[in-house]
Amino acid sequence: MTGGAALTASGIGVSFSGVAVLRDVSLDIAPGEIHGLIGENGAGKSTLGKVLGGYYAASTGTLEVFGARAQAWDPLLALASGVAIMHQELQLVPELTVAENVFLGLEEQRFGVLRRTEVRRLEELMAASGFRLDPNAIVSRLPIADQQKIEILRALAREARIIVMDEPTSSLSRDEVSQLHVAMRKLRDEGRSIIYVSHFLNDILEVADRITVLRDGEHVKTVPAAGETRSSLVAAMLGGGKSETPFPPKVRPVRAEPILEVMNLVSPGGANGATLTVGRGEIVGLTGLVGSGRSEIARAIVGADPAAGGEVRVRGAPYRKRSIRRSAALGMVMSPEDRRKQGLVMTMRTSSNMTLPHLARFAPDGIMRRRLERSRATRLIEHFRVRPPDPNGDVSTCSGGNQQKILIGKWLMENPDIVILDEPSRGVDVGARERIHFAIAELAAGGTGVLLISSEIEEVLGLAHRAYLADGGRIVEEVIPEESSEAELLALLFQHQSRRHEAAPA
Question: Please, are residues 171 and 145 in contact by the beta-carbon 8 Å criterion?
Fold first, then answer.
């Protein structure tokens, strides 16, 4: 590491719908440095990376790149200033070739005519990086691991002096990770800076020069990697503080006979032989690290994604040809993780969002019973304390926490027997979290079986009667929350992830 800072972030704060995601975060990145950025799920790592890359605007704080103040910062200006980001969510054009994706926007031309040099340039880039792909292959036909390599090559092709790599190894084999680390060290030796965001602590320790730890949106420490171990990093990620949100008392079901049974479930989306059960009146947690397949398992259970193998039983009866509609008719519903893209119609009012999955009840002859709709929606609004308490209000004007209450409320309108909640309290304030937590406990107390999916281990431990740990689309451990600590579960998840990564074929 030489010279002054390549990038300096001072007092960065970011809020979404009034909820603070980053608070007063500061860090500096040196030229010729690999800088690890770690933290629990939801700690703010990806958000900070997107601020640096110009995709999110900071509400507070300043950013300097090579000594120049970053003003009106956006992805184009960031790239022009030498900052590129490799996204965790793939940003590829499916029907273009590998070469066309890598050099999209960087095409060589002469007098306005494309020279079609992308294949030759990609061959040179792959020779330097160690990756090998067919330049003419259509991206949509490639496996996820190869698509992730394309994202890495895109970042390298921009010749950026600072590259943010957000979970670049989640779909790579051990050999491919080693190739990436070789490429990262080569870039570092050329004087470029890498911000390496990852849940793979062993990888961070192997290649990083310094490491920054975030916890709950705040900067915990920045330290030389040489003085750290996986245990010390886990301790820093977790801290000693308790949640501000009180959890409701646990009331175990008297007789939790299985209401949902899943055996060896496989899906193209990512379930890889998952087996679990949920009893009547039981809250069962499901947690794992990024890329563990938590959501994919749930989507295959309810039929949002097709299954390729395994069995699902509802109330003891085999459930085949699954779909969202059929699952709802059987009394099994799922509240998805992404409320804006998958859960709510942002152009509709609150009451219409709540009744949308239940139109057969509210419009049996094609004519909407508006009075009934308003009455039922008002009841749920009062139960969840949605603010403003207006069934005719536009859902897009509600805060994130109130949108989350509306999302959960709409699936509970018909009193289902099985509820799958994927990240039910993500991005909501303390008050909304408390109301959602108590609503989950009330559901179970009424006899509903709840599968609670959460990246926040503390939430699983605080609410669940039993919990499963997921990794690689499989259930790898079953634990009793009262007999487990957050640190123990996090350590187990890292162990399973490390074993899978090391066992992956080259």
Answer: yes
Tracing tokens 């000693």 back to the chain, one arrives at 240
* Strand ranges in 186-336 using DSSP code E only, listed in sequence order: 193-197, 210-215, 218-224, 258-266, 272-279, 283-287, 309-314, 317-318, 332-335
d(CA 24, CA 58): 10
> How much is the pTM?
0.67
| pLDDT band, very low/low/confident/very high, at 1 (cuts 50, 70, 90) | very low
Q: How far apart are CA 104 and CA 121, in angstroms?
A: 12
Rounded alpha-carbon distances, angstroms, from residue 26 to 3, 57, 77, 157, 362: 19, 15, 21, 29, 52
Residue 218 half-sphere exposure toward CB, CA atoms < 13 A: 5
Would you mind telling me the total number of residues written for the chain in this entry? 506
b/e map of 131-160 (b: 16 or more CB within 10 Å)?
A: bebebeeebeebeeebbbbbbbbbbbbbeb
Rounded to the nearest integer, the mean pLDDT of the chain is 88
Cis peptide before 388 (omega within 30 of 0): yes
> Residue ranges of the domains in the chain?
7-238, 243-331+417-428+447-506, 341-415
- Rounded CA separation 9/63 (Å): 5
Sign of CA dihedral 427, 428, 434, 438: negative
Query: Which residue's entry shows tokens 């409701």?
Result: 248
Which one of 3.10.20.30, 3.90.1150.10, 3.40.50.300, 3.50.50.60 gives the CATH number of domain 7-238?
3.40.50.300
Domain 243-331+417-428+447-506 has CATH 3.40.50.300: yes
Q: Which DSSP letter does residue 281 get?
A: T
Residue 174 has pLDDT above 90, yes or no: no
